[in-house]
Amino acid sequence: MIGVISVASLALSIAVTYSHPTANFYLLPTRAWELGLGALIALGAVPAAKGATFGNAASLGGLVLIFVSVGMIDETTPFPGLAAVPPCLGAAAIIWSGQLQVTTAGKVLSNPVLVWFGLISYSLYLWHWPVLAAARLIGGSPTIDMNTALLCMALSVLLGWLSWRFVERPFRRARNDSPAARRRVFLAAATATGSLILVSGAVMLSDGASGRIPAEMNAVLREASDRGALERKCMSRGIGELPCKLGSASEPVSYVIWGDSHAGAMLSAFDNALSESGESAVAFAKSACPPLPGLWRVDLGKRHNCDGHNADVLRLIDREYPSATVVLVARWALATQSARAAGEAGEAAVLARSGQRPHANESNAILVSESLTRLASHLRSRGHQVVILTSIPEQGTNFPKLIARSELLGQSGEHFIQRRTSRETYDQRNSKITPIFRNVSARYGVQVLSVRDQMCADVCMTELGGKLLYRDDDHLSAFGAHWLVERIMPVMHQRQR
């Protein structure tokens, strides 16, 4: 039964590697097979290794599988699934080979230093995360420098040993087999869990205990993080509903704003600018869905329906807005690089052709180039002007939260100014999409508007006159969007004339 459950669990993990990556990582049904391997060895499902030569070969092979996995698996590797098989088989091989004999790997792992770390490993596992989380909160970034990382490691080991020595070991040695002792254990656990739920609920209901932040700073943060009614309305609107209108409602549609959540963050700004110029637009914005027909976001699953959404938008443009200028806005750097910006948490963005899985020889950049080239050719052949807004600088740090933390910790403004993305980093991050933009501009006359030239001198701006340009690490705030659109709309108008 354990064998059947393990095989089914592995098959499920492989099947949902791309469609449900977060659930695949955290939930029991897709991880049970890893425990199942150890259970099968413990139950003797696989006969113990006989003979020193074969046992040593298996143990060394297991070590090789583990070390190769450490070197090969990175933030872009879909995990678990097939990528989890080598390290798990490696661990299983080491355990299995050492049941009847001391293998070479067994001798290495029997080193007193490694055994000591093995003893405190569970307490160390529990302590290392809050230590790292505290360091990141104080530092204001998920990225930790080497000196801080070494300090965190040393502190985690110390706390792990203290916890093992004064909590774990006494608890293990105590006589806890009586009904009264077991009741005390469960009562203490229930009390701690209930207390945690109550405290967490209170913090959530008080909006993160926002009262601890000075009122003036709180107002700045709320203004920066506000998405606005227009964005909320348009981002949730389906293709079958009435189009999201911007600008002067009485005028014919001059523009189609098409993009992902970066486009959504700019809708209010476009609405204001178009109203002032007496023009009209329709907007089609879908979160995590760049305007790249024929591609889908594998990491978000088929239910995200990015390819279906973009196909519908293109059909609507052809049918309903034959003379409109099409403005494409997206997080192009993420679309081409796949990996997120340095310091940013989250899954890699994995693209594939509609109805297909990713291919090893087809990177995101290749697919983006093909799709964007086809789209530019299609739109220009039908007489549309096409405008592409280049990537908003990715900061890798949620600046409103960083500033709030800096205020609470009494840190100077230099603390968050140093976190800003440099122009050089921006260029590196956009190194794959920039030549694609040059190609479609040269071949099809697409107008490419540079955000970098507006926002990045030596470093990229994050605030202006005490107002934040960002609402998180990569989306513009309402103020930032209005500031940018005020500068790009005259350029767009000049091109149309």
Structure description:
The radius of gyration is 28 Å and the shape is globular. The protein has 22 helices and ten strands. 35% of the residues are buried. The strands form three sheets. The chain has a six-stranded mixed β-sheet with strand order 1-3-2-5-7-8, sandwiched between helices. It has 497 residues and is of the alpha/beta class. Helix content is 57%, strand content 8%. The protein starts with a helix and ends with a helix.
Q: How are the strands of the biggest sheet laid out side by side? A: 1-3-2-5-7-8
CATH class of the largest domain: Alpha Beta
Shape descriptor? globular
What is the CA–CA distance across the termini?
Answer: 73 Å
In which range does the helix fraction lie?
55-70%
CATH architecture of the largest domain: 3-Layer(aba) Sandwich
Mean pLDDT: 89
Q: Give the number of DSSP strands.
A: 10
Could you say which structural class the secondary elements and strand pairing correspond to?
A: alpha/beta
Radius of gyration, CA atoms, in whole angstroms: 28 Å
What is the CATH T-level topology of the largest domain? Rossmann fold
What's the number of structural domains? 3
Q: Which strand-content bin applies to the residues? A: 5-15%
**Largest sheet features:** 6 strands, mixed
Let me know the CATH homologous superfamily of the largest domain: SGNH hydrolase
Keywords: Membrane, Transmembrane, Transmembrane helix
Transmembrane segments: 29-46, 53-73, 79-96, 108-127, 147-164, 185-205
Protein name: SGNH domain-containing protein
Pfam families: SGNH
